[in-house]
Amino acid sequence: MEYREEMATVLDFEKPIVEIQKKIDELKKMSENSGMDLDEQIQTFEQQAQDYKKELYSKLKPSQKLQIARHPERPKFLDYVNLICDEFIELHGDREGMDDRAIIGGLAKIDGKPLMLIGIQKGKTTKENLEYNFGMPQPQGYRKALRLFNHANKFNLPVVTLIDTPGAYPGIKAEETGQGAAIAVNLREMAKLNVPIVAIITGEGCSGGALGLAVANRVMMLEHAYYTVISPEGCASILWRDAARFADAAEALKITSKDLLELGLIDEEIPEPLGGAHADYSAVGNSMKSSILNSLAELSKMSADELRNDRYNKFRAMGRFLE
User: Fold this and answer.
1) Cα–Cα distances in Å, from 251 out to 51, 65, 168, 321?
2) With CB atoms 3.0 to 4.6 Å apart as the test, which of 57, 76, 207, 236 could cross-link to 245 if both were Cys?
3) What is the SS3 assignment for 244?
4) SS3 helix, strand, coil % of the chain, rounded to 5?
């Protein structure tokens, strides 16, 4: 992560990197003002900063990855639309009276390939987070997604979903309007689609709120995203009656891309630039675009029956146990 004065958020474990970068900036300013040749010292500090960053990010704990996944400057769904799509036409509403802004979807082209792109959107400001309900969809959002799944199926378009949610909205109104049923129907109907489905966890992938868009032939995660049945804070509250033990829960839940790849719950880890996706939008966009196109090229060779069987067998094979 390149240090920027205007950056609003520095994670606690990143502070030593920022301190080194500040020293580098001070030396550069001193060199400019005094005319002294400090290039050798500056280069030494820059190499130290780079080496420290590489070592730090190669050994991140699950609780640290959790912080990166929730970083407020991390790219959101609409950022990825701009990064990977040639064209995007948003399709609104669930046709029952509501357009849930937490889920956004529409017709897209990536490198000229037409597809249906659906994602969960968070905001970067308080105003945007209120508009997008902090990335927590309501039942109407899942019904909108279902409408777009069926539209894609009718016109033989592959489906790509980008997932970043702390979970489905848990409010009373959502329960009254069928939150659990809406997610369950999506799980069932996604399993039956005749077209290729690719799902990517881009940040938070929590509980049924994430799974409602993730019954896919290929499930991928960005390197510092997380995917779990319950938030670490929620897990800690249940197991130890103490949400402050979220780091212990994150370790036990196996929420990282490396853990989930090893367990066979995801198919690919998409690399992020050093420092996380927020450090270089273009780099992470290019990596994601390449993974999507490679997966769709592979899946396009399958028939409708093969695609359905592939999804069925994928999810039936999940689960490991010790005797």
Assistant:
1) 26, 11, 23, 18
2) 236
3) helix
4) 50, 15, 35
Task: State the pTM of this model.
Answer: 0.90
Distance in Å from the first CA to the final CA of the chain: 44
CATH number reported for the structural domain that contains residue 90 in this entry? 3.90.226.10
Among residues 94, 95, 115, the alpha carbon closest in space to that of 106 is found at 115
Taking only the tens place, the pLDDT of each residue in 203-221 is 999 999 999 999 999 999 9
Mark whether 84 and 129 lie in a shared domain: yes
d(CA 276, CA 69): 8
3-state secondary structure 151-198: HHHHCCCCEEEEEEECCCCCCHHHHHCCHHHHHHHHHHHHHHCCCCEE
Q: Which of 45, 106, 99, 57 is nearest to 77 (CA)?
A: 106
Give the pairing type, strands 218-222 and 197-206: parallel
Q: What is the DSSP letter of 271?
A: P
Contact at 8 Å (CB) between 116 and 73?
no
Write out pLDDT tens, residues 12-67.
Answer: 887 777 777 787 777 777 777 777 777 777 777 778 778 888 888 989 999 999 99
Q: Which of 158, 150, 167 is nearest to 217 (CA)?
A: 158
Selection from 16, 85, 104 nearest residue 289 by Cα: 85
Q: How many CB atoms lie within 10 A of CB 91?
A: 15
Which phi and psi (to 5°) does residue 71 adopt? -55, 130
Which helix H or strand E contains 30, and what residues bound it?
helix 15-34
Give Rg (Cα) of the chain.
Answer: 21
Please, are residues 132 and 121 in contact by the beta-carbon 8 Å criterion? Answer: yes
| Same domain, yes or no: 123 and 25 | no
Do residue 188 and residue 127 come from a single domain? Answer: yes
Q: Which two tokens stand for residue 261?
A: 């790849």
Average pLDDT over residues 109-125: 97
Residue 106: which domain range? 66-316
Q: Which residue has the tokens 């040749």?
A: 37
